[in-house]
Design goal:
The protein contains 2 helices and 4 strands, in the order βαββαβ. The longest helix has 14 residues, at 13-26. Strand 2 (31-35) and strand 3 (40-44) form a beta hairpin. The protein has helices at residues 13-26, 49-58; strands at residues 2-8, 31-35, 40-44, 62-64. The chain is 37% helix and 31% strand. It is α+β, with helices and mostly antiparallel strands and 65 residues long. Helix 1 packs across helix 2 (49-58). The chain is globular and about 25 Å long. A 4-stranded antiparallel beta sheet has the order 2-3-1-4, covered by helices on one side. The chain has a single domain, classed as Alpha-Beta Plaits (2-Layer Sandwich). The two termini are 15 Å apart.
Length: 65
């Protein structure tokens, strides 16, 4: 299932890696594409949207679901 999140606070490549790592802790097979300039995180995963959003928020980023 493809899900798109608006994630604010990502300012660098390290931020992108942190968000990707957080998502992949919930679903190691998840595919993550990030457009930092658009505050867009696209996740292809079978996991629940809330679980993915929570994992990103735990890294310290604001997530609009």
């Amino acid at each position: 299932m493809n899900q798109v999140f608006t994630v604010t606070g990502m300012t660098c490549g390290h931020c992108e890696k942190a968000v990707t790592r957080a998502v992949q802790q919930v679903d190691p097979l998840a595919r993550v594409q990030i457009d930092r300039l658009q505050n867009r995180v696209e996740v292809e995963s079978t996991q629940a949207r809330d679980a993915l959003a929570h994992a990103i928020a735990e890294e310290g980023y604001a997530v609009a679901v």
